[in-house]
Amino acid sequence: MFVALAVGGGLGTAWYMIEGGSRLSTRTFGPWTTWVAAGRPDADPYTRAHTARNGLLPLASTLELTYRAKTDSAGGRLHSACEYAIVMESFDGAWWSLAAFDGQGRLIQNAAERYGYNSDTAMREPDGRAVITLARDARPGNWLPIGGGSRITLAFTVHDPAWAAAMYDGGAGKTMPQIQKTACR
Amino acid sequence: MKLPRWIRELDWRAVVGALLLGGILHIAATLAVTALGSGNAFQRMRQTLPVNRMVILPPVAPGKEPLPFMVPDALYAMCRYDVSEDPVAVSAALAAAGWTLSLHTPHGDNFYVMPAQQLRRPEVSFVVVPGVDRLSDYAPAPRRTSAPGSQIASPSLEGLVVVRAPLRGLAWRAEAEALLRRASCAPVKR
User: What is the ipTM, given to two decimal places?
Assistant: First the structure.
C-alpha cells in the first residue's frame, strides 16, 4: 500500500505541477494563467517540463508572455456553444495576439478561416478599445469564429519587454482582458 | 484527542519511506519529461526540417499546426541548425512590431531572441557557434569563424531558429512572405 501511495503520490503530484502549474511556476490573473519563466534557460524544472511535454516553443518570458484561459471571468468553462466578448484595453504600444484553440492547442476549423486577431488586425472602438466577439455565427466587428461543440482555450500573447520583466520580478500586471459570456445556446 | 486506530497502527518508518520514495519519483519524473523530450518541439519539427536550411512553413491552419498554441495570424520560417561541424550563419529582416528571430535549444530554452525595433535596421545577421563548454569537442583551431557579424554561442550543438512574421492583414501577406524569404540559415565553411 505504501509503495502504491508513494508511486501514485509522486507521479500524480509531478503531473499536476507540470500540467497545471502552481504558484511556484505560474501567475494567474482572473481566468488568465501564464508560466512566468517560460522559454528562459534558467526556468524551473516544472516550467521546462511543461514546455517539453506540450511541444511548446515560447519566447523568453522576459520579452513576451503568453496567457491561457480555459474559463470566462465568472469562472464558467469556455465552450463553443456560448458567445463571449473580450475587451482589449491598456495594451497601447504593445503587440498582442488573441487566438482560440481546443484543449490540445489545435485551431478550431471555421469557414471564415479566421483563427485570431492581433493588435494590427483588430478593429478599434472610438475610445481605443478592441472588442473581440467569440461566437459560432457571424457577428459585427471583430468576430472570432468558434464551433465544433468543444471546449475552448484562449491564448493571449503580449510582446512587451517592460511588462514581461516586471511580471517576472513579481510586479503587478496590466489589466487583463475580461472574458464576458454574453449568450449560450 | 484519540486518533483513529488505523493511524495509530501506522509504522512511522514506512510513512517516511513512502514520502521519500514519492519525492524521489516526483523529482525523477519531472526531470525525465524534459530530458527524454519525445514530444518536445524540436523532436516534432525534426522530421520536417532539413539541417541548416531555412524553411518557410505553410500558414498555420487547422490540422496543419506545426506546434500547439502557435500564434495563427503569423507566418513562420524555421531552421534546424547543427553546429557540430561548422558554425551556421543566420540572417533575417524583422520588419515591424511582433516580428522576432529566436534561437531555441532542443529542450525549448530560448537562449537568444531579437525582436523588431523601430529605431534599428530591420536586417539582422549573426553566426551561431558552439557554446564555450562545447568547444572542447570542436575541431582544433581556428575555433571561431572569421565571418563578419556577431557570434551567438549555442548551449547545444543542435537547435531551432524561428522567424515569426505577424500578419497585419491579408493585404500585407505577400510583403511578409517576401521578407520572410530573405531569411537564411547556412553553414559557414572554415
Answer: 0.89
